[in-house]
Amino acid sequence: MKKYEYLIFDLDNTLLNFSMSEYYALKALFTKYGVIFNEETLAEYKEINHELWTKLEEGRIKKEIVLETRFTKFFGRKGIVVDGKTADNDYRKLLESRNDIMKDAVELLTELKNSGYIIYAGTNGVGRTQRQRLKNAKMSSFFTELYISEEVGFEKPDVRFFDTIFNQEGITDLSKVLMIGDSLSSDIRGANRVGIDSVWLNNFSDTYGEDSPIYECNSLRQIKILLKK
């Protein structure tokens, strides 16, 4: 394996266990607004949310639309009228109280930091939420800088998200940069668009199509082994 100097880590479901945090935050939110929380209602919300985030990644809508309408749409289907901003803020507070992390995340970051890698976070999401969750997980100190789409102004896979990192960090040799993330549509597609290598953390033994990574691992432990070669 060739030598890299800069590692850009996605956060959600790469280092931070977003699926678990989301589950408990939504459970509390549904209860607050009087909706039964079960597999059916969870799947219904996720379908709405996924559709909106896909449109966001494709550049068809702004993030404000996602955050302000997903709960309005979901609760509206249940006959409940809510203010989208208020519901999202309630959800965000619940999400920000969590500190769920992926297995072996701290061990991996410790090893890589001690090995001399320069580590950045490159994540889609809301600034205050991602920063608080990293703080809760005691991971903030591993990163030289955090690049969060809300603060950057662009969402992965937009090349401008990555160009912001390169420009602000003075990175000119892109062969020294490696993107690590679980999402084919944002992490791997974005890396391919901008011309950097990538590791796909394939959490669910999925297959990929046109968004092909350079490397594929099924766990963070495998990523640690890969980077030590």
Automatic annotation (TrEMBL):
EC code: 3.1.3.5
Keywords noted in UniProt: Hydrolase
Classification via Gene3D superfamilies: HAD superfamily/HAD-like (3.40.50.1000), Putative phosphatase, domain 2 (1.10.150.240)
Matching InterPro entries: HAD-like_sf, HAD-SF_hydro_IA, HAD-SF_hydro_IA_YjjG/PynA, HAD_2, HAD_sf, PGP-like_dom2, Pyrimidine_5'-ntase_YjjG
Enzyme kind, highest EC tier: hydrolase
SUPFAM superfamilies for this protein: HAD-like (SSF56784)
GO molecular-function terms, A-Z: 5'-nucleotidase activity
A Pfam family hit: HAD_2
Keyword tRNA processing listed: no
PANTHER family per UniProt: PTHR47478, PYRIMIDINE 5'-NUCLEOTIDASE YJJG (PTHR47478:SF1)
Protein name, entry field: 5'-nucleotidase YjjG
Organism from which the protein derives: Vagococcus fluvialis bH819
